[in-house]
Amino acid sequence: MGIIESILDTLSFFYECLPTLLDGLQITIISSVASFFLGLLVGSIVAVLRVERIKFLNPFLTAYVEIVRGTPLLVQLLFLFYGIPIVFGLQMPPLAVGIFSIGLCTGAYQSEIIRTGIQSISKGQIEASQALGMTRWKIMQFIILPQALRIVVPTLINEFITVTKDTSMLMVVSIPELTRRGSWIVYRTFKPFEVFGLVGAMYFALAYASSRLSKYIEKKYQIKGLIR
Amino acid sequence: MNTTTKIVLAVLITAIIVGSTVTAYYEVYRKPALTGIARIQAKGTLVVGLDVYPPWASQTQNGGWEGFDIDVMKKVAEKIGVQFEGKAVVWETIIPALMAKDIDVIASALSITPDRSEEVLYSIAYYEVTLSFVVKTSKVAQYQSAEDFVGKKVGAQAGTTGWDLAQTLYGNTSTEIRDFLSIPDLLLALDTGVVDTGIFDTPTARDYCKQEPAKFAVAFTHPTHGYPDYYAYAVRPDDGELAEAINTVIVELMASGEMAQLMAKWEVSP
């Protein structure tokens, strides 16, 4: 009966870990969702502006996207976390800085995703809309964006899952998210295999739920009869 | 069944037969596993798990190690007749690393705690220690005791006695307790104002404050818990011989006065 006993022991150990880990999961979810939507807002605006090729903005927007994509998120996080108080004298709560930093990062990636979606709408539709007399912004608002956003939902959810995993980096700026709480338990119990196994399973559950959500959103918002 | 399946099955069966034979042979004829000091001597090195924590352990320019604990461990290695090898280990996995035989001994200002005693075999205690509250030098006059931090932000490293004290004093109160991955991270946070104080071991606090007197100062010290806090070295419970060797070295150093010299050298004299 040794194996059954150890399985039951491990399960009851998992049960004891849950309160601490669920606290961490709460922070992970909050920071993932907040960062992602900040990124969605920033990304959409940047994508639309870049597609419209607004002369004086383009270099700045391109610089933003290239710099963020070309540097590690960890570096960006540390840079903002320690830089903002030093340069601006502002004391922001660590979680706010964390969400801001990850939000800016995912915003750059999301802007590229959305830009690709926008550019995938066939020129035929744009020409037809122009023939009907629609302005650039009306075309963007009623023709392009509704289609583009639906097309990129799977890729955006993929980015959301990436953001969820990236939030584990917040531990370096004193935010007790899920992974760090796992470490706290390991300090007390010295069982890294079981604890990080459970932590990994929790991240996986989050990612799996997100991809199911993706399928649901795709189905719900699909444009019936749309031929591309 | 077709040819491919026959070939695959043949390969599989051969692999199983060969594998079992080799394992059986190995079991019967292999040399018996060495234990205790003999195992370390066969290896030729004493692998010492270290976390950066001056003046007990810190890294030199060329990647070597120096510190009080390094000096003691080098003497232990000498006594057993092997080489000293320092291995950097992240603090949270230092005990699991010991259990996994990644390292032979933990030597980095490791306090004796009931939790850890259940997992490791401690050597005799070699140093009594308290915790210090480190603050920015400009604010040192404002803080005289632990109550002065009510409603403020304190920092500590999770998994250390400093963290435990922070939880005991301020857990579930209006004081925010922030967790940092290492002491240098904690001091950086103190410097940029993310926390108002950092709580960690006194000798290390004094060392960092001595390195940066303009930035950091010790506001006051505080006992770790109701009973004295001691440092000791830790080995696996089945490594009694190694623990004995370490104890012998510690006792010899104390008897000959070398322990006091080492403490003076690393400026940790009580």
Features:
heterodimer, A: 228 residues, mainly alpha, MetI-like fold, 82% helix, 0% strand, B: 270 residues, alpha/beta, 5-stranded mixed beta sheet, 3-stranded parallel beta sheet
In short:
The complex is a heterodimer of chains A (228) and B (270). With 228 residues, chain A is mainly alpha-helical. Chain A contains 8 helices and no strands.
Structure report:
The complex is a heterodimer of chains A (228) and B (270). In chain A, 82% of the residues lie in helices and 0% in strands. Chain A is an all-alpha fold and 228 residues long. Chain A has one domain (2-220): MetI-like (MetI-like fold), CATH 1.10.3720. In chain A, helix 2 packs across helix 4 (94-119), helix 4 packs across helix 6 and helix 6 (136-166) packs antiparallel against helix 8. Chain A is flat, with a radius of gyration of 22 Å. Chain A has helices at residues 2-51, 58-70, 73-88, 94-119, 123-131, 136-166, 178-189, 192-221. Chain B has 270 residues and is of the alpha/beta class. Chain B is 41% helix and 20% strand. In chain B, the strands form 5 sheets. Chain B has a 5-stranded mixed beta sheet with strand order 10-9-11-8-12, with helices on both faces. A 3-stranded parallel beta sheet of chain B has the order 4-1-5. Chain B has a two-stranded antiparallel ribbon with strand order 2-3. In chain B, helix 3 packs across helix 9 (240-256). The longest helix of chain B has 27 residues, at 3-29. Classes of the chains: A mainly alpha (228), B alpha/beta (270).
Q: Based on helices, strands and strand pairing, what is the structural class of chain A?
A: mainly alpha
The CATH C-level class name of chain A:
Mainly Alpha
* Tally of individual helices of chain A: 8
Q: Encode the helix/strand succession of chain B as letters.
A: HHEEEHEHEHEEEEHEHEHEEEHH
Q: State the oligomer.
A: heterodimer
Low-confidence stretches of chain B: none
Computed over alpha carbons, the radius of gyration of chain A is 22 Å
Mean pLDDT of chain A: 91
Approximate strand percentage of chain B: 15-25%
Alpha-beta classification of chain B: alpha/beta
What separation lies between the terminal Cα atoms of chain B? 81 Å
Largest sheet of chain B: 5 strands, mixed
Physical arrangement of strands within the biggest beta sheet of chain B: 10-9-11-8-12
Order of helices and strands of chain A: HHHHHHHH
Number of helices of chain B: 10
| Uncertain ranges of chain A | none
